[in-house]
Every structure is written in C-alpha cells, then in structure tokens.
UniProtKB/TrEMBL annotation:
Recorded GO MF terms: hydrolase activity
Pfam families: FGase (PF05013)
InterPro entries referenced in this protein's UniProt entry, alphabetically: N-FG_amidohydro (IPR007709), UCP029730 (IPR011227)
Gene source species: Rhizobium phaseoli
Keywords: Hydrolase
Protein's UniProt name: N-formylglutamate amidohydrolase
Gene3D superfamilies (alphabetical): Zn-dependent exopeptidases (3.40.630.40)
Length: 256
C-alpha cells in the first residue's frame, strides 16, 4: 500500500514539531529528536508489544524532561519531535537505513518491514522535513535579530545494550567541530558528578551526528550532542538533578 502524506498525520494527530520558548534569550538552541514514543493514529501499535513501545527503541526516555528543565533554567528555545523514532528517526538522513529501521536491538519492527520508496518518502515528508525546516527557520530568525545559536541536542541511552552493561553515565558527542564539546568536558571534569566521556556510548562513526552536521557544522555554529544514561533520569528527581547539572555545565561553557 502506498501511503500519502496526509494519511500519516491526521488533523487529530497535530503537528509533528513542538517548539517551546520560541523567543528564549539564551544562545543555546535545544533539540530533542527522540522526545516521544507516540505513534500517529494511522499506524496503530506498529505490530509491537507495549513493552517495546515503552522502551528505548521507540524514544529516548527522560530526554524531553531533562531538555525542558534546561530550557527553563537557561531561557533556551527547545525544539522536539512529537512522534516516535520508529516512524522516522529525525537524527538520520533519508538515505540511512537507520531512519526507518527494520530491527532495533532485540526487536524486529514489523511496521518498517519492506517499505516501498513511496512509503519512505511519505514519512520523510511528514516528519523529517518539517522538523528540520523548523530548526532552520529558528536559526534564520535568530540571525536576523543578531542572536547567536549553539546547537545542543539531548538524548538518552539504555544502560544495557545487547546484553552488555555500559559504565559511562554521560556522553559529550561531537563530529569535526569539538569546540563546545571540549568546553563541556572541561566543565564536567571540574564538577565530576557523573562518569562523563567523549563520543560515548556512540560517536560519529555510528551515524549519530546528523543533526549536528545539518544545523551546526553546515552553519559554522558551535554544537554538542549530550547523551544521558536513562536509568539516571527514570523519575522526576533524577531528571531534575540531571537538568540542573547540565544547565550548570552549559552556563559554564557559555561563560568560557
């Protein structure tokens, strides 16, 4: 079956892009590509059990709450995707198999099996294009009013992946431009609340820096991708502590 764009997101589903503090005064521009595990009504349960839809394969648990805490603390604009990464992973280009993966860790994803070119294009047009167009528009508007932009993406990762435990608690990721990541790592070393490492548990070789390249490197803007181990932000208390800690690191890096 060929999907048409309007079928993917109905009027009841609403916009795929959430923008908060659109006129935030901080130079930090927060982006959360994997903020939600919600599925557009058209897709039903995507052929997956509830435990899979609640797990890290469908979203980055806790990431949006942490991003919102930072946004409030810094008065920073926040852009987030309102639908699950299972439909389209907005941190992957349309050409990447990871944009609409057929498997994720231990799960097969029936809703992504044997997609046609037309189906892939419809999802790209419905979710990826408007999401990144919204970010481009914000950067353009900020430039017009002489406001700097530092791209900061917020993610979370599972503490056990393919049966292997991950010791790292906080990752500062970057691609070719490490300017802001270097400052964040220096700030974290001076206040070592969490085990923090560079380009862990993922790095550029894993294809995770797409948003940084698209909006940071291509515009000459400083940027960093922050990865938080999701067991540390599984409840309100943990999310609050992490948001305050990251807000402090960001402010120190801005001051530097």
């Amino acid at each position: 079956m060929v999907l048409a764009g309007p079928k993917i997101l109905s009027e009841a589903d609403g916009d795929c892009v959430g923008i908060e503090r659109v006129r935030g005064q901080s130079p930090v521009l927060l982006i959360c590509e994997h903020a939600s595990n919600a599925l557009p009504a058209y897709f039903g349960d995507f052929g997956l059990p509830g435990e899979a839809l609640a797990s890290h394969i469908a979203w980055d648990p806790g990431a949006l709450a942490v991003a919102r805490g930072i946004s409030e603390g810094l008065d920073a604009t926040l852009v987030h995707q309102r639908f699950s990464r299972l439909i389209y992973d907005c941190n992957r280009p349309p050409s990447s198999p990871g944009a609409m993966p057929e498997t994720s860790e231990i799960y097969a994803i029936p809703g992504n099996k044997d997609l046609t070119a037309e189906e892939r294009l419809a999802r790209t047009d419905a979710l990826y294009v408007p999401f990144h167009d919204a970010i481009r528009g914000l950067i353009r508007d900020r430039r017009a009013r002489a406001q700097d932009s530092i791209i900061v993406t917020i993610h979370s990762f599972t503490p056990v992946y393919h049966g292997r435990e991950r010791a790292v608690e906080l990752g500062m990721l970057h691609d070719e431009d490490s300017r802001f990541a270097d400052l964040m790592l220096k700030a974290a070393a001076e206040a070592p609340l969490y085990r923090t490492e560079r380009n862990e548990p993922y790095g550029p070789e894993d294809g995770v820096t797409h948003t940084l390249i698209l909006h940071g490197l291509s515009n000459g803007l400083r940027n960093v991708m922050i990865e938080v181990r999701n067991d540390l932000i599984a409840d309100d208390a943990g999310q609050g502590v992490m948001a305050d800690y990251l807000k402090g690191l960001l402010q120190q890096s801005l001051d530097a």
